[in-house]
Amino acid sequence: MLTVTSVLLALFTVSSAQQLNFTHHAVLDPNEKFQLNWNPAADGSDYFTFECVVATRGWLGLGFSSNGAMAAADMVIAWVDASGNPQISDRHGPAQGNGYPPVDSKQDYELVSGRKNDTHTIITFRRKQDTCDPQDWKITSDTTRLIWAYNDQVPTSADDISKHTERGVQSAQLVNPQTKDGMATILADPSTVTYDFRITNVTLPTDKRTLYWCEIIELPTWNKHHIIANRMLVQKGNERYVHHLVVYGCGEEDMSEHLGKPSACFSDTQVFSPMQKCTDYHAVWAVGGEDFVYPSNMGAPIFGNSKQRFVLLEMHYDNPDLTPGITDSSAFRFYLTEQLRPVETGRLTMGLTVSAVELVIPPKQQRFTNYAYCPGKCTSRMTEPINVFTGLLHTHLLGVAMRVRVIRNGEEIESEMRDDHYDFNYQTPTFLSKPLVIMPGDDIIVECTYGSMDRDTMSYGGFGSDNEMCLAFMEYYPKRNLSSEDCMSFLDPEGLLEVLGLKKEEINIGPQ
Ligand SMILES: *[C@@H]1O[C@H](CO)[C@@H](O)[C@H](O)[C@H]1NC(C)=O
Ligand SMILES: *[C@@H]1O[C@H](CO)[C@@H](O)[C@H](O)[C@H]1NC(C)=O
Ligand SMILES: *[C@@H]1O[C@H](CO)[C@@H](O)[C@H](O)[C@H]1NC(C)=O
Ligand SMILES: *[C@@H]1O[C@H](CO)[C@@H](O)[C@H](O)[C@H]1NC(C)=O
Question: Which biological process annotations from GO are given for this protein (predicted)?
Answer without folding.
Answer: dopamine catabolic process; norepinephrine biosynthetic process; octopamine biosynthetic process
